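WARN retry 2 of 3 for item q-0093 after timeout on previous attempt; input resubmitted unchanged.
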Amino acid sequence: MLRFGPAVASLVLLATPSFAARCGGDFNTFIASMTSEAQAAGVSASVTSAALSGVTQDASVLAFDRRQRYTFNKSFEQYVATRVGAGRINGGKAMLQRHAALLTRIEQKFGVPRQILVAIWGLESDFGKGDIGKLPVVRTLATLAHDCRRTELFQGELLAALKIVQRGDLPLRDLIGAFAGEIGQTQFLPSSYIKYGVDFDGDGRVDLRHSVADVLASTANLLHTSGFKMGVPYGEGTANFEAMREWNRALIYRKTIGYYADRLRE
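OK item q-0093 returned
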């Protein structure tokens, strides 16, 4: 499965804003155009200079992108067996206990059950202990935006990444992510970071890499905004299952979230 973060599957298929920078051709010319786009969108010259001056393409990102398949090639039973074992279930139950007070506050504000949030957290990054990416997000997104396959999508994500720095959520040195620019413990694309990110620990910034409170509240906010409701079923065919589509369009992945959440209730 392509390891995209929340909402990317739907974003790939939806219309995206039109940007002026032309894909392909000279990379430095493309970056100059993106710099102008970013500044026109309100990103300061100091941020664009720090982020984009001297940026180069990452061939490994393009190679990874070419290898991806956008559909699952396993049955649900095969897939869930590789993702939700006894260790991950026990780990999830431990997180439910450790963060019980925080999760209660999040449930009260956003109306998303704690088991769903912990299931997503566990699947995406093993509760922040797993691989959340080691690549500079700006370089990754600049590479993908210059490539003509999905240039408008990734031009938008690149601008959103620069806005994360502009807002002061993460310093440029900490804007690190995975192979499609996903950031943090539940793997938000930059546009979702901007749209759904919540400062739930009250430190004045949204930090989806290090703040568990921000990570879980932002995940809940995305689901709540998409229509997820507390106290009603979330299995296949329900409104809540459809609301999780904003997280991931893949039916098998959403079924796995539900299966994992059910195991955490036992």
